[in-house]
Design a protein that fits this description.
Shape: globular
Order of helices and strands: EEHEEEHEEEEEEEHEEEHEEEEH
Mean pLDDT: 95
CATH architecture of the largest domain: Roll
Strand content: 35-45%
Radius of gyration: 18 Å
Number of helices: 5
Largest sheet: 19 strands, mixed
CATH superfamily of the largest domain: Diaminopimelate Epimerase, Chain A, domain 1
Number of domains: 2
CATH topology of the largest domain: Diaminopimelate Epimerase, Chain A, domain 1
């Protein structure tokens, strides 16, 4: 039996998407997630989105990093999942879903303009200084440590060092380096735990960085975010209780795999 799945990306953040009602015989585990994220890919896919039905919402989304660890939310992934379900005529252009951090809304204008409501960001620490770099922990649906920078660093090495710092033991943290370009444009570079790489894009990390810079410099509450994989937009009300992330999503391909090939994984 063939199991269908989809490859997609949002500003370069790449995913395998499983619509679980189409593959009821799969029981996801760490080994299967790792396998699917590497299946017939020149480069490892960043993560896996498991989409299921829900009685209260249009769908439920569970996100897993490519090492098999579960994460509360992936905003880039949510745009991809929403676009796929819309193309399958499962949801309308306006829909609601639930993920590990709670309920969200999604509005699909077109493939280049998809809005997702975001958990209102909040500081979860005072200033923390690690190797002379100052930062703050922020929850924006996932845990992030935001560091403002003004010069180039070895993003991978510095990000890895912060991610594994004793301050964030035992679970670690995502690390977002942010640079102010103008009062309405920021550049964000992310080291993501569970993938252990510098990302082309991180949606919830971009929101965390935007929130911190808005608070520090009284910037506009609509901010353009430059990431390696393209551009995102964060816009919020003055209290940052109503927060949206806007960006593109792209379906790369719909493909399939034999169920027997999956079921042998992890045995």
């Amino acid at each position: 039996m063939l199991v269908p799945f989809t490859k997609a990306h949002g500003t370069g953040n790449s995913f395998i998407i499983l619509y679980l009602p189409e593959c009821p015989d799969i029981t996801l585990n760490k080994h299967i997630i790792q396998f699917l994220c590497q299946y017939k890919s020149n480069d490892s896919i960043d993560g896996l989105l498991a989409i299921s039905n829900n009685e209260r919402f249009d769908f439920k989304m569970d996100y897993y990093n490519n090492d098999g660890t579960w994460e509360t939310m992936c905003a880039n992934g949510a745009r991809c999942a929403g676009l796929l379900l819309y193309k399958k005529n499962i949801i309308a252009k306006k829909a609601s879903f639930i993920s590990g951090d709670g309920p969200h809304d999604i509005i699909i204008h077109d493939e280049n303009n998809i809005e997702v409501s975001i958990f209102p960001p909040e500081y979860t620490s005072d200033e923390i200084i690690i190797d002379e770099l100052s930062g703050f922990s922020i929850n924006s649906g996932a845990k992030h440590f935001v560091v403002e920078v003004s010069e180039h660093l070895n993003w991978y090495e510095v990000g890895k060092q912060i991610r594994f710092s004793k301050y964030f033991s035992p679970h670690g943290t995502n690390v977002n380096f942010v640079q102010r370009i103008t009062n309405d444009t920021l550049k964000v570079i992310t080291y993501e735990k569970g993938i252990e790489q510098i990302m082309k894009s991180c949606g919830s990390g971009s929101v965390a960085a935007a929130y911190h810079m808005y608070k520090k410099y009284n910037l506009n509450n609509k901010l353009n975010i430059e990431v390696e994989g393209g551009q995102l937009t964060v816009h919020a009300d003055n209290d940052w209780n109503n927060v949206w992330l806007t960006g593109p999503a792209k379906i790369i391909e719909n493909t399939s795999i034999e169920i027997g090939e999956i079921n042998e994984i992890g045995k």
